[in-house]
Amino acid sequence: MDTTILHMQDITKTFPGVKALDGVNLSVRKGEIHAICGENGAGKSTLMKVLSGVYPHGSYEGQIIFEGEELKASNIKDSEAQGIVIIHQELALVPYLSVAENIFLGNETARGGFIDWNETNHRAADLLARVGLDELPVTPVGQLGVGKQQLVEIAKALSKNVKLLILDEPTAALNDDDSEHLLNLLRELREQGITSIIISHKLGEIEDIANTTTIIRDGQSIEALDMADPASNQNRIIRGMVGRELSARYPQREPQIGDVVFEVRDWSVQHPVQQERTVVEHASLDVRAGEIVGIAGLMGAGRTELAMSIFGHSYGRNITGTVLMGGKPVDTSTVGKAIGAGIAYVSEDRKKFGLNLIEDIRVNTTAAGLGKISSKGFVDGNREIQIAEHYRKSMRIKTPNVMAKVGNLSGGNQQKVVLGKWLHTAPELLILDEPTRGIDVGAKYEIYTIINELAAAGKAVLVISSELPELLGICDRIYTLAYGRMTGQLPRSEATQERLMELMTIEKESTR
Amino acid sequence: MTITNELKDIFTKNLRTSGIYIAFVLIVVLFTILTNGLLLSPINITNIILQYSYVLILALGMIIVIVAGHIDLSVGSLVALTGAVSAVLVIKNDMPWWAGMLAGIAVGALCGLWQGFWVAYVGIPAFIVTLAGMLLFRGLTYEVLSNVSLSPFPGEYGQIAGGFLNGLLGGNGFDLFTVIIGVIAVVGLFYSQWRNRAGRAKYGQSVESMAMFLAKNIITGIIILWFFWQIATSRGMPIVLIILAALILGYHVLTTKTVFGRHVYAIGGNLSAAKLSGVNVKRINMWIFINMGLLSGVAGVVFSSRSNGAQPGAGNMFELDAIAACFIGGASTTGGVGRVTGAIVGGLVMAVLSNGMQLMGVGASTQQIVKGVVLLLAVAFDIYNKRRAGAGN
């Protein structure tokens, strides 16, 4: 069992002006699950791109030994032929094609150029059984949830006779159930002798599943931890990743709670397409000045839908209910009106809904509050630079100036730009939807600090998060949402993961 | 940063924005040599302006359409329709020249409103809406003109595209007025660049070195002054150049300094993010097409003035010239990127190519082939640059 399947030696990869990898070493034993940890921008993804042939042999320095032979892949096909398959964070499936078609895409079972559909679907069914996915091979992939799509990706990898499976943040978009299922599958594949490399920010997961963890920091491999050693716990990994001990995951704070700023009464929203399906049902909640309130709920509970329907009716149909700011009913039927009423919404998907990635920090910072720096339709360019600079400094965004393209920033810095953009609108209430998704540990701490500062300045903050420890760590009060209904609220002192989970899973009563 | 580094950056890092200017200079030099200097003769420079002004006017609207992530295929037909409306009023109904002009522009804006409605409020892709508009407006042109050409316009109308301001302030062998305008242009440009630089420096942003700044501005200033001198020693200041310059300046300001301009770039860069930032996407899209229609009206008037009449087949393929100008000028096919100055230089590249080849006596077929290849190469270059920039992440 103790044979090395992969050895990457002194890998150095330079981009114009940046040394992304600097003499990285990585040793993976056959049949293990090997985790790679590091902050965003540490070079994890670059290393995996070198391994999978995205960066061809010759574009980097160093040597890759795979199964005793030097690997000289000039593209992804080469490395796949050797049995190295990478599954990217953004899934590469075609939504309109069937599961079977996706599995064999680029690798079709064909005779004389004609696809043998019986053989294709039959083989696909076998592979689906192997990954424990109970779907027909002819089902279009677009009809499956993210968790199941992830399994299709793995089935696709298995169809290529994979020896080394690389997963980049496989559980980032999955709920707890789907994550658990995926991790179990990886364990099963380990039994079958398939080696996996997993990149993840979820340290609990890594502690659970990995045999070895390699830590990468600033483009260098720092250490390889044997996870069988009880000392190799989450804190140990974090210490390696940030190069220092994080005394606490969540910054301390003394809440100064004032009057009710924001209130929603009897809020109901219907699904935009599916008739008669109610996504949010008679929900009510309030947030006080200086208070950080959480919303906990499983995937599909209607958390984001609730927030987006409040914010300019950006989601759903037939929206009913009242929004009150400072005790007075306000109209939030367009985004403009919602902003005017003092509401800001930081989306869970900053790349899709939060930022214009091809523009610079300056333009993104002022995008939601242009009215504040313009008169008669003309933007005051100097004032704009001044404001963007202010947020760059106060948010500690790590760039030399505000002319840096947002698309080139790390996740944590991008999130800070989004926060700056919404702070510039001077809101009374900030709704933060998954504010630390896809952000590394160090930057998370900074985001929490910023949230605390906002509360200290008397803002009302509403946080939506899938990570219960995060809610427990920063919130004063937590609402639970299940199947579109508010099922309870707990003050910080009474909230535990178990109690929240109980409330989050209360099913709809059949009679109502 | 030293000046040699900055020069290096122009040819490497900033090639995407500076590439079009370098290409333009190369093309001008090439055709100057091939035509034995005829290209840059005073008469020919004036001719290029008169001949291609309407494509540049269309490019001004098109760049906004393209930056917002749309396309407009109907502008050629709309040029014909607006010119026809103007001609019917002025030639058939003996209305004054300005009434025809205003009516043409108004019809253009109205047609833009029509298309904007379908794009913004019904949600049909602009490609389809304007493809329909291309047929629709062409058909209407035939209707308005009853299938026959109308000409000639009375004298004043012809002045719009063919007139000159000459001898307004006198001058010996040259037009003093034109020279003064040139000097004002150079001083104004320098002043605005200076203010821009000072503003950035004041707020701690990186600026180019003083040497680079001066070098750039002095070279630009000399080129502008030389250009105006050439015009001044020919027939004086073309009226259409004044219209064009005012429009370029206006649209440059509109796209770079106004809230409207910002919203256009925001929509093209990330539609969802723009919506969630409170941008009224429907209204902006509506105005983008109204504006395109309006400029098509202006181009229609200029074109009918220059051709001294209205023909049912006028403006054929103008949309492609305008679109090509934008893409050659560095606009992105996926929206969010593009500049007014780029589109103008892109349009000038097309103009110099056509004009240069005409001077050399190259046939129309070859001209089209060359223009097609240039468009393809320009976009290929853009994609190559994007990929190179993307590899840095």
Automatic annotation (TrEMBL), chain A:
Domain ABC transporter: 6-243, 264-508
Taxonomic superkingdom: Bacteria
Protein's UniProt keywords contain Cytoplasm: no
Alphabetical keyword list: ATP-binding, Cell membrane, Membrane, Nucleotide-binding, Repeat, Sugar transport, Translocase, Transport
Any one GO molecular-function label of the UniProt entry: ATP binding
Pfam families: ABC_tran
Identification of the protein by name: Xylose ABC transporter ATP-binding protein
TrEMBL record, chain B:
Keyword Signal: no
Main location group: membrane
Transmembrane segments annotated in the record for this chain: 20-43, 49-68, 75-91, 97-114, 121-140, 174-192, 213-231, 237-254, 284-302
Membrane topology: Multi-pass membrane protein
Localization in the cell: Cell membrane
Keyword Cell inner membrane: yes
UniProtKB keywords: Cell inner membrane, Cell membrane, Membrane, Sugar transport, Transmembrane, Transmembrane helix, Transport
NCBIfam families: GguB
Function text: Part of the binding-protein-dependent transport system for D-xylose. Probably responsible for the translocation of the substrate across the membrane.
The name this protein goes by in its record: Xylose transport system permease protein XylH
Source organism (scientific name): Glutamicibacter nicotianae (Arthrobacter nicotianae)
